[in-house]
Write a structure and sequence with these properties.
This protein is 34% helix and 19% strand. The chain has 185 residues and is an alpha+beta fold. The two termini are 30 Å apart.
Length: 185
């Protein structure tokens, strides 16, 4: 499963580019900061790969770099709709949420068909697992804003956050006795 989240920058955006204290942070539709795109295992909810970019980069542009290479299916939200052909070319089955197609001017947007709604409902239950990662980052680890500046340092901070999340999640999986997770102790 692939999804992205917005993380605020440590500084505010300045009007002049030369006055920027964080030159790598950019202004996206949610604010000034960075976007962290993650690839999460659907069964265990462990983070497999993280890519950090400026907030102005669209989620779909980071889909291929965040893939590990051994995926058979990829679940994603409707922001990745245009990447279905790229995934099929790699031999990966895309499981991307369907969205309504805009109608012509002065005409109402047609609703999703019943089969598309059913498909979205089935995918939403599985795809919600990637949102648990972001909830953990922002509530348990209290990471709404990065504490450093520059893309390299912010990437290192987010990778450390992902490592901490995976350690916490792995402990939960071992205590719960989930199949497929082996405790080396």
């Amino acid at each position: 499963m692939v999804d992205a989240t917005f993380i605020k920058a440590n500084s505010k955006q300045r009007k002049k580019p030369e006055d920027q204290s964080d030159p790598d942070a950019t202004y996206g539709y949610k604010g000034f900061g960075y976007s962290a795109t993650v690839n999460v295992d659907a069964k265990s909810k462990l983070i497999r790969k993280v890519v950090v970019t400026g907030a102005n980069v669209h989620d779909s542009q980071i889909l291929l770099p965040v893939l590990v290479g051994d995926e058979q299916t990829v679940g994603a939200d409707s922001g990745y709709v245009g990447k279905e052909k790229d995934l099929k070319a790699l031999g990966i089955q895309p499981r991307i949420i369907k969205r309504r197609v805009r109608g012509k001017q002065h005409e109402p947007t047609p609703e999703l068909t019943a089969s598309q709604k059913r498909f979205n409902g089935l995918l939403s239950k599985v795809r919600a697992r990637v949102e648990h990662v972001f909830a953990g980052w922002k509530t348990v680890f209290k990471k709404v804003r990065v504490s450093c500046r520059g893309l390299v340092r912010v990437s290192a901070e987010i990778l450390g956050l992902a490592f901490g999340y995976n350690c916490r999640r792995y402990g939960f999986l071992v205590r719960g006795g989930v199949e497929g997770v082996v405790c080396g102790v």
